[in-house]
Amino acid sequence: MHRRKKRSRINPVLILASVLIFITGAGIFVYPAVSNYLAERRQAEAVTDYQRDVSSLEPQDLSEQKARAQEYNKNLAEDEFHDPFLQDGKYVISPAYQKVLDYNEEGIMGYVEIPDIDVNLPIYHGTGEEALRKGAGHLEASSLPIGGEGTHSVISAHRGLPSAKLFSDLDELEIGDVFFIHILNETHAYQVDQINVVKPDELDILRVVNGQDLVTLLTCTPYAVNTHRLLVRGVRIPYEEAESVREAVGGGNPLSGWVKEYAASVLAGLALLVLLTLSAIAWKRRKDPGVGRLRSKDPVKTKPGRIERGHRKREQKRRKYRE
Description:
Blueprint: H1 12-55, H2 59-74, H3 95-99, E1 108-114, E2 119-125, H4 129-134, E3 136-138, E4 151-156, E5 178-183, E6 186-198, E7 213-221, E8 228-237, H5 239-249, H6 257-287, H7 304-322
Parallel strand pairs: 2-3, 4-7
Antiparallel strand pairs: 1-2, 1-5, 3-4, 5-6, 6-8, 7-8
Helix pairs in contact: 1-6
């Protein structure tokens, strides 16, 4: 009786573990893209809601809101600027500040549009973690972004988050680029005239400059290191002039720095996956040299038909010999 060779059985636990590892890896790859897509949808919805709420206000209500904001800026004390990213959870918005430009009870005072890096973010009161998680935040110690001489508003947002782009591409702006602040029923245009990198405690550059209408966009730098602050300052220019600059430059860069970083991470992950797969195959072949090769025929294992034919031939020879 011939022994049957045992077939190697695949361990179901190993299969399950491999599937789980693959799903986890795929999830890690697609998480930034999906998360950023959902974040941008929420931001777009917030901007749309803001536009709808503003359009429903009566002219008198709009005038009152602007007058209250101007009064707030006029009485703004020269408080020390705090770094929006070093608060240790102790940041609290003052009630008087919260009530100004808050007519939809969502904390949105306007939105910032930066065409060159394809950014359109709602601006929330304050720079608490909740505000910066949803969009951009207004630095409370700075002027409210309603424009006017002798004002300097500071708009801040995160950079380098895996879940949302936000201000990740702010370092791509150059002197002469333009951005827009949409506030109430007005659109204010600003042209970049200064780009500075400072330490977190060197924020005196954010103070008001007499006779100028300024807005500074603030975020962390270097990318993913965040030891310094990137300050992109814009000076107010006529809207028509800004539109001509935007048309001359064209639309935003479709392959932004954030997209390049994400694509590089995905490619690196795929390369590592291929390397691990090839290593596993090589290890398996070293362990079992027969893997992937044609096995020689087992002389013991002969088909039953051949055995019967052999018996018949021998029997015929015996009969012929007897005869």
